[in-house]
Amino acid sequence: MNHLATNFYEAASVILFGIGFMNLLLQNNLIKKFIGLNIMDTAVYLFLAAKGYIFGRVAPILTNGVVDADYYINPVPAGLVLTGIVVSVSVTAFSLALVQRLYKHYGTLNMDEIMKLSREEEGE
Amino acid sequence: MALSEKKSFWQKLKAWIDGEEILINADKYISTREKPELPHFAKHFSTENVRSNKKLYRLMSVFVSLVFIGIMLITVTHLPTFGEASNPSNNEVAERYLEQGIEETGAINFVAGMILDYRAFDTFGESNVLFLAVICVVMLLKRDSKNISAAEDQENAEDDVFDMEDLKLILKKGSKTIAPLVILYGIYVVLNGHLSPGGGFSGGSIIGAGLILYSAANGQKKMQTFFTFRTFTLISVACLLTYCGCKSYSFFTGANHVGYEIPKGVPGAILSSGFILPLNICVGLIVACTMYGFYALFTKGEI
Questions:
Q1: Are the C-beta atoms of B267 and B274 separated by less than 8 Å?
Q2: CB–CB of B62 and A26 under 8 A?
Q3: Out of 1.10.287.3510, 3.30.70.890, 1.10.390.10, 1.20.120.450, which CATH number does the structure's domain A2-123 have?
Q4: Which of A52, A91, A124, B142 could form a disulfide with A77 if both were Cys (CB 3.0 to 4.6 A apart)?
Protein backbone atom coordinates (compact mmCIF):
# COMPACT_ATOMS: atom_id res chain seq x y z
CA MET A 1 0.00 0.00 0.00
CA ASN A 2 2.88 2.28 0.83
CA HIS A 3 4.43 1.46 -2.52
CA LEU A 4 1.20 2.48 -4.22
CA ALA A 5 1.55 5.93 -2.66
CA THR A 6 5.13 6.31 -3.97
CA ASN A 7 4.07 5.11 -7.41
CA PHE A 8 1.07 7.43 -7.44
CA TYR A 9 1.58 8.53 -11.07
CA GLU A 10 1.33 4.96 -12.27
CA ALA A 11 -1.63 4.30 -9.94
CA ALA A 12 -3.43 7.40 -11.26
CA SER A 13 -2.78 6.40 -14.87
CA VAL A 14 -4.14 2.90 -14.20
CA ILE A 15 -7.30 4.29 -12.61
CA LEU A 16 -7.69 6.73 -15.53
CA PHE A 17 -7.35 3.80 -17.94
CA GLY A 18 -10.09 1.94 -16.05
CA ILE A 19 -12.38 5.00 -16.18
CA GLY A 20 -11.86 5.25 -19.93
CA PHE A 21 -12.56 1.54 -20.35
CA MET A 22 -15.77 1.83 -18.32
CA ASN A 23 -16.79 4.80 -20.45
CA LEU A 24 -16.17 2.72 -23.57
CA LEU A 25 -18.41 -0.07 -22.28
CA LEU A 26 -21.22 1.97 -20.73
CA GLN A 27 -21.81 4.84 -23.14
CA ASN A 28 -24.39 4.39 -25.85
CA ASN A 29 -23.47 7.52 -27.76
CA LEU A 30 -20.73 6.77 -30.27
CA ILE A 31 -18.91 10.09 -29.83
CA LYS A 32 -18.81 9.58 -26.05
CA LYS A 33 -17.39 6.12 -26.68
CA PHE A 34 -14.50 7.69 -28.59
CA ILE A 35 -14.01 10.20 -25.76
CA GLY A 36 -13.56 7.14 -23.52
CA LEU A 37 -10.99 5.76 -25.95
CA ASN A 38 -9.09 9.05 -25.80
CA ILE A 39 -9.11 8.97 -21.99
CA MET A 40 -7.47 5.54 -22.23
CA ASP A 41 -4.82 6.95 -24.60
CA THR A 42 -4.10 9.77 -22.17
CA ALA A 43 -3.66 7.26 -19.34
CA VAL A 44 -1.02 5.45 -21.40
CA TYR A 45 0.86 8.72 -22.05
CA LEU A 46 0.83 9.51 -18.33
CA PHE A 47 2.20 6.06 -17.57
CA LEU A 48 5.01 6.38 -20.14
CA ALA A 49 5.94 9.90 -19.01
CA ALA A 50 6.07 8.68 -15.40
CA LYS A 51 8.39 5.84 -16.42
CA GLY A 52 10.88 8.27 -17.93
CA TYR A 53 11.10 10.67 -14.98
CA ILE A 54 14.04 10.62 -12.55
CA PHE A 55 14.12 12.80 -9.42
CA GLY A 56 16.42 15.80 -9.49
CA ARG A 57 17.26 15.71 -13.19
CA VAL A 58 16.43 18.14 -16.00
CA ALA A 59 14.62 17.79 -19.35
CA PRO A 60 16.69 16.15 -22.13
CA ILE A 61 17.87 19.37 -23.79
CA LEU A 62 21.50 20.44 -23.40
CA THR A 63 21.63 22.59 -20.24
CA ASN A 64 24.76 24.41 -18.96
CA GLY A 65 26.85 22.45 -21.44
CA VAL A 66 26.72 19.23 -19.41
CA VAL A 67 27.09 16.09 -21.54
CA ASP A 68 26.46 13.41 -18.95
CA ALA A 69 23.76 10.75 -18.77
CA ASP A 70 23.38 11.34 -15.02
CA TYR A 71 22.18 14.91 -15.56
CA TYR A 72 19.10 14.31 -17.75
CA ILE A 73 15.91 12.26 -17.53
CA ASN A 74 15.27 9.36 -19.90
CA PRO A 75 14.43 10.66 -23.43
CA VAL A 76 13.08 7.36 -24.82
CA PRO A 77 9.53 7.52 -23.31
CA ALA A 78 9.14 11.06 -24.73
CA GLY A 79 9.61 9.68 -28.25
CA LEU A 80 7.17 6.86 -27.56
CA VAL A 81 4.52 9.29 -26.28
CA LEU A 82 4.96 11.34 -29.47
CA THR A 83 4.24 8.25 -31.58
CA GLY A 84 1.23 7.45 -29.41
CA ILE A 85 -0.25 10.93 -29.77
CA VAL A 86 0.05 10.88 -33.57
CA VAL A 87 -1.59 7.47 -33.87
CA SER A 88 -4.37 8.42 -31.47
CA VAL A 89 -5.12 11.61 -33.45
CA SER A 90 -5.30 9.60 -36.69
CA VAL A 91 -7.52 6.89 -35.20
CA THR A 92 -9.85 9.47 -33.61
CA ALA A 93 -10.21 11.40 -36.87
CA PHE A 94 -10.91 8.23 -38.86
CA SER A 95 -13.49 6.93 -36.38
CA LEU A 96 -15.23 10.30 -36.13
CA ALA A 97 -15.48 10.37 -39.93
CA LEU A 98 -17.11 6.93 -39.81
CA VAL A 99 -19.49 8.17 -37.08
CA GLN A 100 -20.44 11.15 -39.22
CA ARG A 101 -21.29 8.85 -42.12
CA LEU A 102 -23.36 6.64 -39.79
CA TYR A 103 -25.21 9.71 -38.52
CA LYS A 104 -25.95 10.84 -42.06
CA HIS A 105 -27.37 7.41 -42.88
CA TYR A 106 -29.32 6.60 -39.74
CA GLY A 107 -29.95 10.01 -38.19
CA THR A 108 -28.88 8.92 -34.71
CA LEU A 109 -25.70 8.40 -32.71
CA ASN A 110 -27.19 5.85 -30.34
CA MET A 111 -25.47 2.49 -30.73
CA ASP A 112 -28.61 0.41 -29.97
CA GLU A 113 -30.78 2.41 -32.35
CA ILE A 114 -28.23 2.01 -35.13
CA MET A 115 -28.05 -1.75 -34.54
CA LYS A 116 -31.85 -1.98 -34.60
CA LEU A 117 -32.20 0.10 -37.75
CA SER A 118 -29.47 -1.80 -39.57
CA ARG A 119 -31.07 -5.10 -38.64
CA GLU A 120 -34.41 -3.87 -39.93
CA GLU A 121 -32.71 -2.75 -43.11
CA GLU A 122 -31.15 -6.16 -43.57
CA GLY A 123 -34.48 -7.87 -42.92
CA GLU A 124 -36.24 -5.99 -45.70
CA MET B 1 -22.01 -16.40 -72.10
CA ALA B 2 -19.85 -15.10 -74.88
CA LEU B 3 -20.59 -11.54 -73.83
CA SER B 4 -19.56 -11.99 -70.22
CA GLU B 5 -16.37 -13.87 -71.08
CA LYS B 6 -15.20 -10.93 -73.15
CA LYS B 7 -14.67 -8.71 -70.12
CA SER B 8 -11.11 -7.58 -70.25
CA PHE B 9 -8.67 -7.65 -67.41
CA TRP B 10 -8.87 -3.86 -66.97
CA GLN B 11 -12.66 -3.92 -66.73
CA LYS B 12 -12.47 -6.60 -64.08
CA LEU B 13 -9.84 -4.66 -62.18
CA LYS B 14 -11.92 -1.50 -62.38
CA ALA B 15 -14.99 -3.33 -61.13
CA TRP B 16 -12.98 -4.84 -58.30
CA ILE B 17 -11.64 -1.44 -57.24
CA ASP B 18 -15.11 0.09 -57.36
CA GLY B 19 -16.34 -2.72 -55.12
CA GLU B 20 -18.77 -4.15 -57.70
CA GLU B 21 -19.24 -7.82 -58.19
CA ILE B 22 -17.57 -9.18 -61.29
CA LEU B 23 -20.44 -10.56 -63.30
CA ILE B 24 -19.16 -13.61 -65.10
CA ASN B 25 -22.17 -15.56 -66.39
CA ALA B 26 -24.32 -12.66 -65.25
CA ASP B 27 -27.77 -13.94 -66.27
CA LYS B 28 -27.26 -17.29 -64.64
CA TYR B 29 -26.06 -15.64 -61.48
CA ILE B 30 -29.07 -13.36 -61.21
CA SER B 31 -31.60 -16.12 -61.77
CA THR B 32 -30.17 -18.32 -59.04
CA ARG B 33 -29.33 -15.69 -56.52
CA GLU B 34 -31.07 -16.13 -53.20
CA LYS B 35 -30.92 -14.33 -49.97
CA PRO B 36 -28.07 -15.66 -47.88
CA GLU B 37 -29.22 -17.78 -44.96
CA LEU B 38 -28.72 -15.95 -41.68
CA PRO B 39 -26.55 -17.78 -39.18
CA HIS B 40 -28.30 -19.42 -36.25
CA PHE B 41 -27.48 -16.85 -33.59
CA ALA B 42 -28.51 -13.92 -35.77
CA LYS B 43 -32.03 -15.36 -36.30
CA HIS B 44 -32.80 -15.59 -32.59
CA PHE B 45 -30.99 -12.45 -31.62
CA SER B 46 -33.40 -9.58 -31.30
CA THR B 47 -33.04 -6.11 -29.86
CA GLU B 48 -35.71 -6.95 -27.27
CA ASN B 49 -33.29 -9.35 -25.60
CA VAL B 50 -30.67 -6.64 -25.51
CA ARG B 51 -33.05 -4.24 -23.82
CA SER B 52 -33.98 -6.69 -21.06
CA ASN B 53 -30.34 -7.50 -20.36
CA LYS B 54 -29.39 -3.83 -20.22
CA LYS B 55 -29.19 -3.70 -16.43
CA LEU B 56 -27.10 -6.86 -16.23
CA TYR B 57 -24.80 -5.52 -18.92
CA ARG B 58 -24.21 -2.25 -17.08
CA LEU B 59 -23.54 -4.04 -13.80
CA MET B 60 -21.19 -6.47 -15.47
CA SER B 61 -19.24 -3.76 -17.28
CA VAL B 62 -18.74 -1.81 -14.05
CA PHE B 63 -17.69 -5.02 -12.34
CA VAL B 64 -15.25 -5.97 -15.11
CA SER B 65 -13.71 -2.49 -15.12
CA LEU B 66 -13.29 -2.47 -11.35
CA VAL B 67 -11.66 -5.91 -11.38
CA PHE B 68 -9.40 -4.69 -14.18
CA ILE B 69 -8.39 -1.60 -12.19
CA GLY B 70 -7.76 -3.78 -9.14
CA ILE B 71 -5.47 -6.18 -11.02
CA MET B 72 -3.56 -3.27 -12.58
CA LEU B 73 -3.16 -1.58 -9.17
CA ILE B 74 -1.71 -4.79 -7.74
CA THR B 75 0.70 -4.78 -10.70
CA VAL B 76 1.64 -1.17 -9.96
CA THR B 77 2.69 -2.14 -6.42
CA HIS B 78 5.23 -4.53 -7.97
CA LEU B 79 6.64 -1.93 -10.37
CA PRO B 80 10.02 -0.33 -9.62
CA THR B 81 9.90 2.80 -7.48
CA PHE B 82 8.97 6.01 -9.28
CA GLY B 83 11.80 8.40 -10.12
CA GLU B 84 14.77 6.18 -9.21
CA ALA B 85 17.82 6.40 -11.43
CA SER B 86 18.51 2.66 -11.07
CA ASN B 87 15.19 1.61 -12.66
CA PRO B 88 15.49 -0.95 -15.46
CA SER B 89 13.98 1.44 -18.02
CA ASN B 90 16.97 3.81 -17.62
CA ASN B 91 19.33 1.47 -19.40
CA GLU B 92 22.26 1.81 -21.76
CA VAL B 93 20.02 2.90 -24.68
CA ALA B 94 19.05 6.17 -23.02
CA GLU B 95 22.63 6.59 -21.78
CA ARG B 96 23.99 6.27 -25.30
CA TYR B 97 21.46 8.78 -26.68
CA LEU B 98 22.40 11.28 -23.97
CA GLU B 99 26.17 10.89 -24.00
CA GLN B 100 26.89 10.61 -27.71
CA GLY B 101 23.73 12.24 -29.11
CA ILE B 102 25.30 15.63 -29.70
CA GLU B 103 28.39 14.17 -31.29
CA GLU B 104 26.47 11.78 -33.55
CA THR B 105 23.39 13.83 -34.49
CA GLY B 106 24.43 17.43 -33.80
CA ALA B 107 21.11 18.31 -32.13
CA ILE B 108 21.15 19.69 -28.61
CA ASN B 109 17.54 18.63 -28.11
CA PHE B 110 18.15 14.95 -27.38
CA VAL B 111 14.56 13.94 -28.15
CA ALA B 112 14.75 15.56 -31.61
CA GLY B 113 18.07 13.81 -32.23
CA MET B 114 16.50 10.55 -31.17
CA ILE B 115 13.26 10.65 -33.18
CA LEU B 116 14.69 12.25 -36.32
CA ASP B 117 18.06 10.55 -36.51
CA TYR B 118 18.38 7.31 -34.55
CA ARG B 119 14.72 6.40 -35.01
CA ALA B 120 13.92 8.36 -38.15
CA PHE B 121 12.06 5.55 -39.89
CA ASP B 122 9.66 5.41 -36.96
CA THR B 123 8.83 9.09 -37.51
CA PHE B 124 8.48 8.47 -41.24
CA GLY B 125 5.87 5.83 -40.41
CA GLU B 126 4.05 8.31 -38.18
CA SER B 127 3.90 10.89 -40.97
CA ASN B 128 2.55 8.22 -43.28
CA VAL B 129 -0.09 7.26 -40.71
CA LEU B 130 -1.23 10.90 -40.55
CA PHE B 131 -1.36 11.15 -44.34
CA LEU B 132 -3.30 7.87 -44.57
CA ALA B 133 -5.76 9.07 -41.92
CA VAL B 134 -6.46 12.24 -43.86
CA ILE B 135 -6.88 10.25 -47.09
CA CYS B 136 -9.37 7.95 -45.34
CA VAL B 137 -11.31 10.97 -44.07
CA VAL B 138 -11.30 12.39 -47.61
CA MET B 139 -12.73 9.10 -48.90
CA LEU B 140 -15.46 9.10 -46.25
CA LEU B 141 -16.46 12.75 -46.09
CA LYS B 142 -15.56 14.51 -49.35
CA ARG B 143 -18.66 15.93 -50.94
CA ASP B 144 -19.07 14.67 -54.48
CA SER B 145 -21.95 13.57 -56.66
CA LYS B 146 -22.55 10.41 -54.60
CA ASN B 147 -22.26 12.00 -51.18
CA ILE B 148 -24.37 15.14 -51.15
CA SER B 149 -27.71 16.29 -49.84
CA ALA B 150 -29.85 19.32 -50.62
CA ALA B 151 -30.05 20.40 -46.96
CA GLU B 152 -26.28 20.46 -46.59
CA ASP B 153 -25.96 22.38 -49.85
CA GLN B 154 -28.31 25.03 -48.55
CA GLU B 155 -26.47 25.19 -45.24
CA ASN B 156 -23.17 25.72 -47.00
CA ALA B 157 -24.64 28.42 -49.23
CA GLU B 158 -25.94 30.24 -46.12
CA ASP B 159 -22.52 29.93 -44.52
CA ASP B 160 -20.93 31.49 -47.58
CA VAL B 161 -23.34 34.43 -47.38
CA PHE B 162 -22.42 34.90 -43.72
CA ASP B 163 -18.76 34.83 -44.61
CA MET B 164 -19.18 37.47 -47.31
CA GLU B 165 -21.04 39.96 -45.11
CA ASP B 166 -19.44 41.77 -42.21
CA LEU B 167 -21.35 39.80 -39.59
CA LYS B 168 -18.42 38.27 -37.76
CA LEU B 169 -16.66 41.57 -37.24
CA ILE B 170 -14.88 40.78 -33.96
CA LEU B 171 -13.72 37.38 -35.17
CA LYS B 172 -12.52 38.78 -38.49
CA LYS B 173 -10.62 41.73 -36.97
CA GLY B 174 -9.22 39.52 -34.23
CA SER B 175 -8.06 36.80 -36.60
CA LYS B 176 -6.40 39.39 -38.82
CA THR B 177 -3.95 40.19 -36.01
CA ILE B 178 -3.78 36.85 -34.19
CA ALA B 179 -3.60 34.32 -37.05
CA PRO B 180 -0.28 35.60 -38.54
CA LEU B 181 1.28 35.62 -35.06
CA VAL B 182 0.10 32.07 -34.39
CA ILE B 183 1.50 30.86 -37.72
CA LEU B 184 4.77 32.75 -37.13
CA TYR B 185 5.12 31.14 -33.70
CA GLY B 186 4.48 27.73 -35.27
CA ILE B 187 7.23 28.36 -37.83
CA TYR B 188 9.57 29.36 -34.97
CA VAL B 189 8.81 26.13 -33.10
CA VAL B 190 9.42 24.04 -36.25
CA LEU B 191 12.71 25.76 -37.13
CA ASN B 192 14.04 25.51 -33.55
CA GLY B 193 13.04 21.86 -33.21
CA HIS B 194 16.65 20.72 -32.76
CA LEU B 195 17.53 23.49 -30.30
CA SER B 196 14.57 23.83 -27.96
CA PRO B 197 11.43 21.96 -26.92
CA GLY B 198 9.10 21.43 -29.85
CA GLY B 199 9.72 20.22 -33.37
CA GLY B 200 7.75 19.18 -36.40
CA PHE B 201 4.72 17.73 -34.70
CA SER B 202 4.05 20.47 -32.14
CA GLY B 203 4.98 23.32 -34.50
CA GLY B 204 2.85 21.81 -37.27
CA SER B 205 -0.13 21.65 -34.93
CA ILE B 206 0.34 25.34 -34.08
CA ILE B 207 0.50 26.30 -37.78
CA GLY B 208 -2.62 24.17 -38.36
CA ALA B 209 -4.39 26.02 -35.54
CA GLY B 210 -3.52 29.34 -37.19
CA LEU B 211 -4.90 28.14 -40.55
CA ILE B 212 -8.08 26.91 -38.82
CA LEU B 213 -8.53 30.30 -37.12
CA TYR B 214 -8.13 32.10 -40.45
CA SER B 215 -10.55 29.74 -42.17
CA ALA B 216 -13.14 30.04 -39.38
CA ALA B 217 -13.06 33.82 -39.56
CA ASN B 218 -12.87 34.41 -43.30
CA GLY B 219 -14.62 31.39 -44.71
CA GLN B 220 -13.76 28.50 -46.94
CA LYS B 221 -13.94 30.56 -50.14
CA LYS B 222 -11.18 32.93 -49.04
CA MET B 223 -9.07 30.02 -47.82
CA GLN B 224 -9.37 28.33 -51.20
CA THR B 225 -7.64 31.25 -52.89
CA PHE B 226 -4.34 29.91 -51.60
CA PHE B 227 -5.01 26.46 -50.10
CA THR B 228 -6.91 23.98 -52.25
CA PHE B 229 -7.02 20.21 -52.31
CA ARG B 230 -4.32 20.32 -54.96
CA THR B 231 -1.98 22.34 -52.76
CA PHE B 232 -2.69 19.99 -49.90
CA THR B 233 -1.79 16.86 -51.89
CA LEU B 234 1.26 18.48 -53.46
CA ILE B 235 2.71 19.64 -50.12
CA SER B 236 2.01 16.35 -48.34
CA VAL B 237 3.40 14.11 -51.06
CA ALA B 238 6.43 16.34 -51.71
CA CYS B 239 7.26 16.38 -47.99
CA LEU B 240 6.89 12.60 -47.64
CA LEU B 241 9.11 12.02 -50.68
CA THR B 242 11.73 14.50 -49.42
CA TYR B 243 11.77 12.78 -46.04
CA CYS B 244 12.08 9.37 -47.68
CA GLY B 245 14.89 10.58 -49.95
CA CYS B 246 16.89 12.26 -47.17
CA LYS B 247 16.69 9.30 -44.86
CA SER B 248 17.40 6.76 -47.61
CA TYR B 249 20.51 8.76 -48.50
CA SER B 250 21.86 8.87 -44.97
CA PHE B 251 21.05 5.21 -44.27
CA PHE B 252 22.65 4.11 -47.56
CA THR B 253 25.83 6.12 -47.12
CA GLY B 254 26.03 5.31 -43.42
CA ALA B 255 25.55 1.59 -43.81
CA ASN B 256 28.05 1.27 -46.67
CA HIS B 257 30.70 3.60 -45.21
CA VAL B 258 30.76 5.57 -48.46
CA GLY B 259 31.67 8.70 -46.55
CA TYR B 260 29.51 11.45 -48.05
CA GLU B 261 28.54 12.65 -44.60
CA ILE B 262 26.19 15.57 -44.13
CA PRO B 263 28.06 18.33 -42.25
CA LYS B 264 26.79 18.48 -38.67
CA GLY B 265 27.68 22.11 -38.08
CA VAL B 266 28.21 23.68 -34.68
CA PRO B 267 25.76 22.22 -32.13
CA GLY B 268 23.47 25.03 -31.00
CA ALA B 269 23.52 27.00 -34.26
CA ILE B 270 20.32 27.20 -36.29
CA LEU B 271 21.96 25.62 -39.37
CA SER B 272 23.29 22.51 -37.70
CA SER B 273 22.59 18.86 -37.01
CA GLY B 274 22.56 17.59 -40.59
CA PHE B 275 19.18 16.41 -41.86
CA ILE B 276 17.21 17.13 -38.69
CA LEU B 277 16.18 20.67 -39.71
CA PRO B 278 14.81 19.74 -43.19
CA LEU B 279 13.12 16.67 -41.73
CA ASN B 280 11.48 18.83 -39.04
CA ILE B 281 10.23 21.20 -41.75
CA CYS B 282 8.78 18.29 -43.76
CA VAL B 283 7.02 16.82 -40.73
CA GLY B 284 5.75 20.26 -39.70
CA LEU B 285 4.24 20.93 -43.15
CA ILE B 286 2.56 17.50 -43.23
CA VAL B 287 1.09 17.97 -39.75
CA ALA B 288 -0.12 21.51 -40.54
CA CYS B 289 -1.83 20.33 -43.75
CA THR B 290 -3.34 17.36 -41.93
CA MET B 291 -4.77 19.43 -39.07
CA TYR B 292 -6.33 21.96 -41.42
CA GLY B 293 -7.51 19.12 -43.68
CA PHE B 294 -9.36 17.43 -40.81
CA TYR B 295 -11.05 20.71 -39.89
CA ALA B 296 -12.09 21.54 -43.45
CA LEU B 297 -13.36 18.04 -44.19
CA PHE B 298 -15.37 17.74 -40.99
CA THR B 299 -17.01 21.14 -41.36
CA LYS B 300 -17.52 21.60 -45.10
CA GLY B 301 -16.63 18.26 -46.64
CA GLU B 302 -13.95 19.68 -48.90
CA ILE B 303 -10.53 21.22 -48.55
A1: no
A2: yes
A3: 1.10.287.3510
A4: A52
